[in-house]
Amino acid sequence: MVTFFGFFYVCFLISHIYLIREYTYGKFFVWLVFICAFGCDTGAYFSGMLFGKRKLIPELSPKKTVEGAVGGVITATVVAVVYGICIERYFKLENVNTTILCLITGIAGSVLSQIGDLAASSVKRFVNLKDYGNLIPGHGGILDRFDSVLLTAPVVYYIMLFLIEVL
């Protein structure tokens, strides 16, 4: 069971980055995975530092705050929309409303990136670990840095798949 979970958790979820890249205009939209995940992480960190008062889920991640979570979603969404506007302005993709696609993806992707981060934290708490490794100073291991990307990639892929057809 653990082997299946490890395979699914890392390989299957991260493979969506490849699927995004291979899709129509994927070379533009693959960056949304990282914009959502890292934009949310960065926005949550600074928002939580500046405004954080109420703990989000202290049992899983004692430093995360509600204000940080909201700030992360707002930051990632704004950065995603700016990215969408830039794509629309400079590359003129046919039959794709990139601003709307990036807005919806920014909101959903940033929320799921936080859920991915909290899911990884719950696994670490369950097995009594602080970090998954020590490869990246101050961040832990690779999985500590990319835990939010793992759930964001499928969300971006399926939103992109649906919205490119609809918009």
From TrEMBL:
Gene Ontology annotations for the cellular component aspect, listed alphabetically: plasma membrane
PANTHER family (alphabetical): PHOSPHATIDATE CYTIDYLYLTRANSFERASE (PTHR46382)
GO biological process: CDP-diacylglycerol biosynthetic process
InterPro entries the record matches: PC_trans
Enzyme Commission code: 2.7.7.41
Molecular function per GO: phosphatidate cytidylyltransferase activity
Transmembrane segments: 6-21, 28-48, 68-86, 98-116, 148-166
Upper lineage: unclassified sequences, metagenomes, ecological metagenomes
Native source organism of the sequence: bioreactor metagenome
Subcellular localization: Cell membrane
Bilayer topology term: Multi-pass membrane protein
Protein name: Phosphatidate cytidylyltransferase
Family membership: Belongs to the CDS family.
Record's keyword terms, sorted: Cell membrane, Lipid biosynthesis, Lipid metabolism, Membrane, Nucleotidyltransferase, Phospholipid biosynthesis, Phospholipid metabolism, Transferase, Transmembrane, Transmembrane helix
